[in-house]
Amino acid sequence: MSLTNRVCVFFLAALGIILAVYSLVFYTVTREHLVHQFSSEMRGVLNSLIAAAEVEETEVKWQPLEHAIDVGVHDEFGEVQWIVLGDDNLVVERSRSAEVDLVALVESNANLRMEQTSERVLTDTLGDWALMSQRVSAPRPVRLQRELDEFDQLTVVVGRSTLPRDAILFRLTALVTLLPLLTWSIAALLGRWVVRKALSPVAAMANQAQAITGVDFQSRLSHGEAGDELTELGVAFNRLLDRQQTAFEQQRRFAGDAAHELRTPITVLLGQIDVTLRRPRSEGEYQANLELLRTQTKVLQEIVESLLFLARRDADAASPELRSIELKQWLETQASTWAVQPRAADLVLDIRLEEQVKVRSTPALLGRVVDNLVFNAMKYGEAGTPVIVRALEQNGQLLIQVFDSGPGIAAEDLPQLFEPFFRSTAARHRGIAGTGLGLAIASRIATILGGDLECSSEPGQGSCFTLRLPIIS
């Protein structure tokens, strides 16, 4: 089921339930009000007629000429008609508008002739008439010679045709049934159009997304500027495509650079092997060629290991168990290993740390980062210029800074400095050997240790690489 259909079904189902509940409540309340009004008017007429009868100890008198009786009720339900029955169920009096059908119905119905002994109000519906009756009796009747207006008991019957009431209820039923159906149908037509109109950008973006191939990172989804959720979806998807394009281009560049870097030692190996196999050689020549092959093989091994390290996921790269290291003591020990370097005399160690400052790492990982920074500073700086290794605490973080007095790094090269295989144009022109993997690996290790690696440089003024690590207590 499409999104449009799902939204429409949900909307129409909710609207249908709301309309059904509203119609049921409205019909019930209105019907009860109409029925109550219909009956209360009849009861009012009945009570007025009962009050007109004079109840004495031995007889009940009905003297309409002595009373002004006007109980005619005329409204949308029609007139209330009445009949007064005396002894032996004879009609004593009736309303001027009493219909023949009502009189015949009262005279022929045993229940309405009040054969019961109670004087409570009785209600009944016979045919198209709603009837209400009540008896009035003398407490101790004595049947002697009486006047025409004296009786042992009187029975008052009021009646009203149910046809007008039923017609009103029928119109009410039709209203609460047809009007919600009409409303629901209009909402269904307009609602589907509105939903399709509102979700049309989603369909358009879906078609555009399907048209984007696995290697096409130039296309982007078009979206409006309404500032709604669909706009946010389009913007978020385009940002995802931007990240995918960046990652794809980095991966493609990484693969190309890796192939290029691997080609050089492999070409040297194959060339040297071919030269060695052209003619028989002395033992010394074989040994010299093998030493050259061994050197190139180590270069190839270093490149492969670096590629494998960079290809690991962060979770895999962080697998070594880290432990607490006192940095001042470790840095002094690590500095002793740099004494064999050609420019060891140019190294300046500036440790501004307390003894208890600790970081979480392993000696191998931390040593790989710091050694890479120190060796790069030695490689790119001029002999005789200082290489300063400084350690200090700043804002709850440990900083290891390596300064050199080399040619510096161009501003346009700084954003790409920690990407695999990147080497600046100046370094290539100067013919300085390298694979461009060292800083990428150092940055990856810094991230694993919970820190970061950054560089600041000015051409002609040298560079400063800063390793930031969190200090542990």
Q: Could you characterize the architecture of this molecule?
A:
- The protein has 473 residues and is α+β, with helices and mostly antiparallel strands.
- It folds into 3 domains: 3-169; 229-311, Helix Hairpins; 319-472, Histidine kinase-like ATPase, C-terminal domain (Heat Shock Protein 90), CATH 3.30.565.
- Helices cover 49% and strands 18% of the residues.
- The chain contains 10 helices and 15 strands.
- It has helices spanning 3-52, 100-108, 163-211, 229-277, 283-311, 314-317, 327-336, 363-380, 425-429, 438-448; strands spanning 54-55, 60-61, 81-85, 91-94, 122-126, 129-137, 150-151, 153-161, 323-326, 347-352, 358-361, 387-394, 397-404, 452-458, 462-472.
- The strands form 3 sheets. Strands 9, 10, 11, 12, 13, 14 and 15 form a 7-stranded mixed sheet that branches. A 5-stranded antiparallel sheet has the order 4-3-8-6-5, with helices on both faces.
- Helix 1 (3-52) runs antiparallel to helix 3, helix 4 (229-277) packs antiparallel against helix 5 (283-311) and helix 8 (363-380) runs antiparallel to helix 10 (438-448).
- The radius of gyration is 53 Å and the shape is rod-shaped.
- 20% of the residues are buried.
- One of its GO terms (cellular component) is plasma membrane.
